[in-house]
Design a protein that fits this description.
about 675 residues, alpha+beta, 5-stranded antiparallel beta sheet, elongated
């Protein structure tokens, strides 16, 4: 029994001191709660800041869209006004084609158009579409009497029909762009055109169409005007830069975004994620996006042609870097302010906490010493200044009482130990008596087996063998010379009788060890196993049993031969009882090392009924048997005792219905 003073050591050790807890209470508001609040505020401020940037770029896109719409409306109004002007009607009525062409050329230049021409709606080419213009919805609408303006995408061939210069201006070589979708094209040859058509009444009473338009490819004046309207001077913080772009499909055909220096990013392409959202899904993009070579707060919206198809995008945006820098600087300022406040306030909190945790630490150390067995430990805080010091004084009083009680408990403990020692001696004597009883039981089981086998030998074998041998000798004498005719048969009978005598002799060696053996000798295990087989031959004959023998052991064992035979015969009999009808009995011996020691391993394996798992754990217990009324339950217990006495090991493995394997390991004889 352990002394009272050491019983507290069984309790779990404290891993956190009073100092740590008080410091946590003192510093938690400043070092934990305040940073969490600041973090939440920063996250909310960051989301609001981003929302503000998104709102701004959305407003910028609205301005750009309004100007783009104004260009369309203004172009349509100019062409419609020209068609209704007196000068145009006068030249048209005069029937002078050259005069009409000259007037249209002058007005095209005045209105800033890239092309302006007149279509006769009554001509055969217009009616059958041979002139290549009747498929445009704006022209079809004008022929029906409704003037209209829209965006259309002209192929390079269409532009070449109007003017080779337009076809040349429309071509833009594609530039490899990071994050853009994969493409096999190397140039954009189509043209995005502001396409306007106005109905004209011809002098002959027919319908005509006045058609004009502006090619937006590489129209830098148009895109710069949008950029100047959206991003006026001082509308963005220093370092930021506003940009505007017109896309044909996903290719920049007019932009003020720079690749480097003064080179504009014409021919570069939009990122894959924006292409998917705007051109394929038809959504308006209001978010940050990678533009050519940097991140921008961007706004994209799709542009539809006169057929209702999404053919391009209008973009405005500004550099994200200055705003990101502003957010970073703001975060640094907040962190710096927090650190400044913490540096000023934490020492004050620590000074206040020190007056609390120093007395508590004294009490904690005192309790620790008491737990270690030092009952003389005291806090010695004699000056009562506050509640904590008063608690320390009460603790000292309690420790005085504990020390007195410990003395009494130790005395009781000594008395209890004396009683335990006395009871232990009684148990030791009882155990010795139990061992003596066990040895007597082992001898009783052995004597019972010897008596049974000896009786069988005496009554069943010896007398018949003696009669056979005597009559055989008498028959040989009576026949005399005539006995030579059956000499071979007499010899075979002599051999079999001698074999029976050998079996009887080995059986008697097993039954009466005090007469035939009894000394511990070195033996070849294989020979001992072979000598045991005749002893169980009568059981082998009762069933169809196949004996498989494998002997490879070359080492010797030091053991009483009779005891080893007793163990092996017991295992063989158990194996044969487990195979009442048929099966295989495998007997093997081999040189095997165990725990680094040389020895011999003997295996007895059967293919019988096997042993259940719950019985397998008790198979070596004395008086435990699975044979019900047929056995005493001491055979395996005695066998294991004999093997253990020689420093060996006995193991068993079994599966119900599969069979059982007993393995014996014995150390090699020195």
């Amino acid at each position: 029994m352990k002394p009272f003073g050491h019983s507290a050591s069984a309790r779990p050790k404290r891993t956190r001191s009073v100092r740590f807890k008080l410091l946590a209470i003192a510093l938690l508001p400043t070092l934990v709660i305040l940073p969490l609040l600041l973090g939440v505020m920063m996250v909310r401020w960051n989301s609001k800041f981003d929302a503000l940037l998104t709102s701004k770029v959305s407003g910028d896109l609205t301005i750009a869209r309004q100007y783009f719409t104004h260009i369309l409306e203004n172009t349509g109004e100019q062409i419609q006004s020209l068609g209704q002007s007196v000068a145009f009607r006068t030249v048209l009525t005069a029937g002078d084609p050259d005069g009409v062409s000259q007037l249209l050329a002058r007005r095209q230049q005045d209105m800033g158009l890239d092309f302006l021409y007149l279509i006769d709606g009554t001509s055969e080419d217009t009616r059958n579409g041979a002139d290549g213009t009747s498929h445009w919805p704006v022209i079809t609408s004008a022929l029906a009497g409704r003037s209209s303006t829209n965006i259309d995408i002209f192929s390079n061939a269409d532009l070449r029909k109007i003017s080779p210069d337009l076809a040349k201006r429309a071509r833009i070589d594609l530039v490899e762009t990071p994050n853009a979708p994969a493409t096999t094209r190397d140039a954009e040859t189509r043209g995005m055109v502001v396409h306007s058509a106005s109905h004209i009444d011809l002098p002959d009473g027919g319908d005509g169409v006045l058609v004009g338009g502006i090619l937006l490819n590489q129209n830098l004046a148009f895109i710069d005007t949008i950029n100047d309207l959206v991003y006026r001077q001082s509308s963005l913080p220093e370092g930021s830069q506003g940009t505007a772009t017109l896309f044909l499909d996903d290719v920049r055909i007019s932009t003020n975004v720079r690749l480097f220096a003064e080179r504009r990013a014409l021919g570069t392409r939009v990122s894959d994620v924006v292409h998917q959202a705007v051109l394929e899904d038809g959504k308006v993009w209001l978010d940050r996006a990678f533009v050519v070579n940097d991140w921008y707060i961007s706004a994209y919206e799709p542009i539809k042609d006169s057929f209702g198809k999404r053919v391009g995008m209008l973009y405005v945006g500004f550099l994200e870097a200055p705003f990101a820098q502003t957010k970073f600087e703001t975060l640094l300022i907040i962190i710096g302010a927090f650190l400044f406040v913490a540096v000023l306030s934490v020492p004050i909190f620590l000074r206040w906490a020190r007056g609390i945790f120093k007395p508590l630490e004294r009490m904690t150390n005192t309790i620790g010493r008491v737990e270690a067995g030092d009952f003389s430990a005291r806090t010695n805080l004699h000056q009562v200044q506050d509640e904590i010091s008063l608690v320390a004084e009460h603790l000292d009083d309690l420790l005085d009482q504990v020390q007195e009680r410990d003395k009494r408990l130790r005395a009781w403990n000594d008395q209890l130990n004396a009683r335990v020692d006395a009871r232990t001696r009684e148990l030791r004597e009882a155990n010795q008596q139990l061992e003596a009883t066990t040895k007597q039981l082992i001898m009783s089981e052995k004597l019972a087996a010897i008596g049974e086998i000896t009786a069988g030998v005496a009554h069943e074998i010896n007398n018949p063998v003696a009669v056979l041998q005597g009559n055989l000798d008498l028959l040989r004498d009576l026949m005399g010379e005539h006995g030579k005719i059956a000499a071979t048969e007499f010899r075979l009978i002599d051999e079999q009788v001698n074999r029976i005598n050998l079996i009887v002799t080995k059986l008697l060696q097993f039954a009466k060890p005090e007469e035939y053996a009894g000394f511990v000798e070195r033996h070849v295990v294989g020979q001992v196993i072979d000598d045991c087989l005749p002893l169980v031959q009568h059981l082998l004959g009762k069933a169809d049993i196949e004996v498989i023998r494998n002997s490879t052991a070359a080492r010797l064992v030091l053991m009483n031969r009779t005891e080893l035979q007793q163990v092996l015969v017991n295992l063989m009999v158990n194996a044969l009882h487990a195979m009442p009808q048929n099966g295989q009995l495998t007997l093997m011996d081999a040189d095997v090392d165990f725990d680094g020691k040389p020895g011999i391993e003997i295996t007895v394996r059967d293919t019988g009924t096997g042993i259940e798992a719950d019985a397998l754990n008790r198979i070596f217990d004395p008086f435990y048997t699975t044979k019900r009324r047929e056995g005493t339950g001491l055979g395996l217990s005695i066998s294991k005792t004999l093997i253990d006495r020689q420093g060996g090991q006995m193991r068993v493995e079994s599966k119900p219905g599969k069979g059982t394997t007993f393995t014996i390991w014995l150390p090699e004889a020195d």
